[in-house]
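Weekly sync notes, structure subgroup
Attendees: PM, AL, DS (notes)

Item 1: joint prediction request from the bench team. They want all two components modeled as one assembly rather than separately. Inputs as received:
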Amino acid sequence: MTNNSESHNLEEILAGYVLGNLDETELAWLNEQLAANPELREEVKQLQATLTLMPYDLPQDVPESNLRQAILNNVETKPSHQPRLQRLSWIIGAVTAFSTLWLGINNYGLRQQLASTNSQLQEHQELISLLRQPNNRLVSFQGLETFPTASGSLFIAPQKHKAVLALQNLQPLSGNQVYRLWAVSQEKKTGCANFIPDKEGKVHLELSNDDLSNANYLLITVEPEADTPQPEGNPIMKGYYSL
Amino acid sequence: MQTANFWDWQKIVSLSNKRVKKTEPNVFEVINADLETKTDEAIFAAFKEGDSTALGTIYDRYGLLVYRLVYRMLNNSQEAEDLTQEIFLSLQERPNYNPERGSFYTYLMMLTRSRTIDRLRAKRSQGKFWQDVGKMKDLLGRPNSVNPIESVSIKERATQVRKALESLSSNQRQILELSYYEGLSQSEIAKRLNLPLGTVKTHSRRGLLKLRKNLHNLVT
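Output from the run, pasted for the record:
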């Protein structure tokens, strides 16, 4: 042990590690100890195992349905044996239908769970809530000649002074170049935002700009640098209000 | 500041994966010998080999504990049943358990907690509507009978765990339970209980050490 060890209580640090409440200094110190004394990992394991005993003290609740059978039914959807009795085929059919239904519901649940853990969900929910409000507008973007595959949408919620821009299939830019969104009204072009796409050519951007809802149409250009007062590059996408 | 995330099973197993020697069968296996002659680990191995009935045996041993942990964390019986099913079926889809890394029970309960925390996070972001519906359903009454055989098999351990938890100070126990069942960080607990962060950490660490001491025979 190092001199440093005097300032740390090894047992408490191990417990803190298992509980996930070490600070950086403690963690660094523990890592040194673990490297020097691999047998400490056994201690860690025992502390982990101790925590997993806590549910033994929980109230004696039981599931309302026959959970065991439900689990086994679904495990047995991948059997290696073939059904032998023809007359039971309708039962097997029913079980299969039930399983399919359950798997469908389960799959839906899993998908929901996945989606909700995805950070994009919040953005999607935001979009949905924006769409539900009256007076909101939707702009559809399509790429012009040079970027024919680029496309996307812009949702505008004027009352919230908020808009969400989503684009795809944009090409990467070099140097200081940026894409720039312009609101065009009576040939007056107002710069609204600079952005660059991610590695997949996608853009997801939240804007707060009142010029967007008052424009005749919107343009996206490639600019040599951010915040150009007037467009210097050619338009690569154009957006019209579709809602 | 949380720099070491215990609740992430992957991190835990990576820390302990250099273990080379299997310990003696733990007390769970010995106690369960009257139900099946095989150890948990052997039963899980049979399940991996395609014996789907082995999952029934695993459920008989730990199904209710898994369900109760999920139910305690989600506070909704229907969701707890669904997630319990998912957890058991995930043993088939991704049989990642490695006996070198600890007992099967520890793996199963850590998997359960980790999956339930994921669900809790999703629920928190989705609002409490369905949770409240579930609670209303629960209020309508629920059965409270336990399979007698299963009950006997866990009774002894339950008693021991209860005594061990009762030996903790009320702060130690409350903080450990908030951390384990509700997935709160130490700083969230400090805020909720209006205690300094350092105090919360000390209580939780000493509480866990005391538990380990009192439950030593169950974890070695």
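Discussion: Helices of chain A lie at 10-19, 24-36, 40-51, 67-75, 89-117, 120-132, 211-214.
Action: AL to compare against the crosslinking data before next sync.
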